[in-house]
Amino acid sequence: MDNNMVLDKMEDIFIDVGFIPVMLNGVKFFKFEECYCKITFISDWSAFVIESADNIRDAEKGVLEDGDLYYTDVSEKELLVQFRSDLIQYYMS
Q1: DSSP 70-90
Q2: CA-based nearest residue to 4, from 53, 41, 31
Q3: What distance in Å separates the CA atoms of residue 39 and residue 24, rounded to the nearest whole number?
């Protein structure tokens, strides 16, 4: 699995479901209402994680909560389907 391509597809999913890309302190976030999210790849665990903040102040300070992990040992399709579902269920409600 090409992690950079998967990351690009994850970013596309953010936009597809209604998030807006914003830059805060040189870091790319995706904003929906007052929720700010970013994706980080953790190489030691071979997994992506959604990091989020409930307001712009916390996002700017880097005070982020970790969400579920998306391991790269599953198919790319399975990872992306779960990612889309989790975004809608946990970050847009």
Answers
A1: EETTS-HHHHHHHHHHHIIII
A2: 41
A3: 14
Which residues have C-beta within 8 Å of that of residue 59, sequence separation ≥ 6?
24, 29, 36, 53
Q: Whole-model pTM?
A: 0.94
* Span 31-42, pLDDT tens digits: 999 999 999 999
CA 88: distance to chain centroid?
A: 12
- 3-state secondary structure (DSSP) of residue 46: coil
Helix (H), strand (E) at residue 52: strand 47-53
Structure tokens at 87: 């975004």
pLDDT tens string 52-87: 999 999 999 999 999 999 999 999 999 999 999 999
